[in-house]
Write the structure tokens for this entry.
Amino acid sequence: MTLDLQRLSAALTAAAPDAVLPECLPASISGVADLAAASPTDLCFAGQADQAEAVAASAAIVLLVPTDFPDMPGKVLIRCVGPRRAFFAVAALFVPPPPPPGVDPGAHVHPSATLGEDVSIGPGAAIGAAAVIGARCVIAGGAQIGADVQIGDDCVIERNVTVMHGSRIGGQSGVTKDVAAGATVFGTPARDMKQTLRELGALAQLPELLRRVKRQERELAALQQRTTGGDPA
């Protein structure tokens, strides 16, 4: 998709009425990206003036920046109060509309599978026996859903992904890679539930671990002071 100058200007004016649009805006942009991944035809943003070095190193040419951002040769800077907000307003224009609900004629759905309301199943996709697909799910073209798979509401299974038999996918998940048989995944991108819960459990213990480290540091400092008779280092 390409966004021409007229649509770009309209989107920026709506999202950031205070934006100062330079006369040298390009005729179009082809996408949005962060500073590290941008191409010369992408729109980027910098949220703070201290990102000048990252902006200079980026391939991006057109950038939304705060009003106090320094001038930079070779960059087209659109200054506004809320560059982040304006950036995501433009980014929304590049999100493709969801496919209409329904089963494509080129898809195969096993008679024993259960489909929720407003499910979209793309061409070449296959839904196995006794699979349950939640409401408003999008099964992209070429995706293969095995037997006895359970998929929660509002999930997106990307193109050509295989979800093996007996696996479960939590609601509102985005599945971008194959799912092993019997696995339980959730999130976007979807991850193994057991692994994610272990990581969340470890994060929950982090504050206590930090308190222990600080307490041990104080004890070591006190011990050093007692043994040397001086101030702790």
In short: DSSP finds four helices and 21 strands in the chain.
